[in-house]
Specification:
Blueprint lengths: L6 E6 L2 E7 L5 H14 L4 E2 L8 E6 L6 E3 L6 E3 L2 E3 L4 E5 L4 H16 L4 E5 L1 E5 L2 E6 L6 H8 L5 E3 L2 E7 L2 E6 L14 E12 L4 E4 L3 H9 L9 H14 L3 E6 L3 H9 L1
Parallel strand pairs: 2-4, 4-8, 11-15, 15-17
Antiparallel strand pairs: 1-2, 1-3, 5-6, 7-8, 9-13, 10-11, 10-12, 13-14, 14-15, 16-17
Length: 265
């Protein structure tokens, strides 16, 4: 992929983010960070300038590292970025890819306040071109089920799913973030087919759930938020539960053939 030397455009959850690589004598750090972005985010990179830009990240050189010490505790904090207005962040070449991930996550949270976007702790699989999401508390089998299915149905997420309402339809987007499993990530959207609340068992039992109060209570436990976005995302999630009608309870055994057969029907 041919990438402009000083600018990269990312498309994440339908949002357009511009990364500017400012001038620096610290070429090793600049080239290393840019190469990592190109490698890990390659399927989120656009070769064309978008008509509408949602956010800008400018990376610059900063002399020295600013350490902040919280009084009475042996904890130190590094300044990763500064905000300039509502749609721009300035970061530094001293950051690494994981820290850049935190910056981008912060940006997506900010943009979610303006659009009908929320985040769920879930795994997800591509079932015949649509996204099926799997929810449950720790140990319910979110990672187990997609790993059993991935032989036939590609793994889309193992940790966080982005849900966005566009023209009254709900779509799943992959995050660009590194998860527990290595997943090839893309910027494309998938219409959401079904959502399953999981429970490990010795056999298979699938049941549609119609009680919206019960669904909201269950799904709100899997909402991934920060303090700034919590109230608005609960509002978006509540609307989703009211409007979406494909929620299921799934008890499943750790048996690949039976599980693939169930989702092939």
């Amino acid at each position: 992929m041919k990438i402009q030397t000083q600018v990269i455009f990312l498309t994440i959850a339908g949002f357009q983010i511009k990364i500017i690589f400012g001038k620096t004598d610290w070429l090793f750090a600049k080239n290393k960070l840019r190469d990592e972005i190109v490698y890990y985010y390659k399927d989120f990179i656009s070769n064309m300038k978008p008509r509408k830009l949602d956010f800008t990240i400018e990376l610059i050189e900063k002399k020295g590292v600013e350490l902040l010490h919280k009084q009475y505790e042996s904890k130190y904090f590094v300044n990763l970025f500064e905000e300039f207005g509502k749609n721009k962040i300035v970061g530094y070449y001293s950051i690494n890819l994981v820290q850049l991930q935190l910056i981008i996550r912060n940006i997506i949270f900010k943009l979610s306040l303006k659009y009908k976007v929320f985040f769920l702790h879930s795994s997800a699989a591509d079932i015949n071109g649509e996204a099926c999401l799997f929810l449950g508390n720790q140990g319910a089998g979110k990672s187990t089920i997609v790993n059993l299915l991935k032989e036939k149905f590609p793994l889309l997420a193992d940790d966080i799913s982005i849900i966005r309402n566009e023209l009254n339809e709900y779509y799943f987007y992959q995050t660009p973030f590194i998860e527990r499993e290595w997943i090839r990530k893309k910027s494309i959207k998938y219409k959401i087919a079904k959502i399953f609340f999981l429970k490990k068992a010795h056999n298979f039992m699938l049941q549609k759930i119609k009680n919206k109060d019960y669904i909201l209570k269950k799904i709100i436990e899997q909402l991934f938020v920060n303090k700034e976005s919590e109230n608005i995302q609960i509002k978006y999630l509540t609307a989703f539960v009211s409007e979406f009608n494909h929620f299921y309870s799934l008890s499943f055994a750790k048996e690949k053939a039976g599980l693939i057969k169930l989702f092939s029907l």
